Amino acid sequence: MSLSVDADIAAGTDLLGKYVADLQSGITVGENAITGTLKYVTGYTGFSGDVAEQKGNYLALHASSSGADSITLELIGGVSGRGEVTLDGDGLMIIRISNINQQVKIRAYKNGVVANSRLYSLAGLTLQGVS
Questions:
Q1: How would you write 12-73 as a 3-class SS string?
Q2: What number of other Cβ atoms are within 10 A of residue 77's Cβ?
Q3: Hey, which of 23, 41, 45, 114 has its CA 20 to 30 A from 96?
Q4: pTM metric for this prediction
């Protein structure tokens, strides 16, 4: 079963009140690494009702898998403690990144079993600070 992860999100797509250009630039998803620049944003109330999570660096990605029952995302080294989260049918994900030592794990499930999995390093990201 295939599993595809990319940053090819249409520029006009509303990402909970922000757009791709508001969040990031030059994002490339390789075989096992994600590179590019994450902009520092504030007032991202659509992302979270928690004031502490409404500012920072956010990564927007899209995942798809032919034949999967569900696709999940897990931010390894994340501070929110959310663990593995199931994506909506559109496959869009927005992740608050606090440091480049974190990793993103994407899993495709079929009949309750992991059919495909990808682990991405974030070491190649540039996190912009407060501007």
A1: CCCECCECHHHHEEEEEECCCEEEEEECEECCCCCCCCCHHHCCEEEEEEEEECCCCCEEEE
A2: 13
A3: 114
A4: 0.93
Question: In the predicted model, is pLDDT for residue 130 greater than 80?
Answer: no
Write down the domain spans for the chain.
4-127
What average pLDDT does this structure show over 46-63? 95
pLDDT at 131 over 60: no
In CATH, which of 3.40.720, 2.40.160, 2.60.40, 1.10.3470 is domain 4-127?
2.60.40
Q: How far is CA 123 from CA 20, 37, 83, 94, in A?
A: 20, 11, 20, 18
What number is the average pLDDT over the span 52-69? Answer: 95
Q: What's the rounded Cα separation, in Å, for the pair 72 and 65?
A: 11
C-alpha 32, offset from chain centre: 14
User: Could you give the C-alpha distances from 90 to 70, 86, 125, in angstroms and in order?
Assistant: 11, 11, 25
Spatial contact of 122 and 100, defined as CB atoms under 8 Å apart: yes
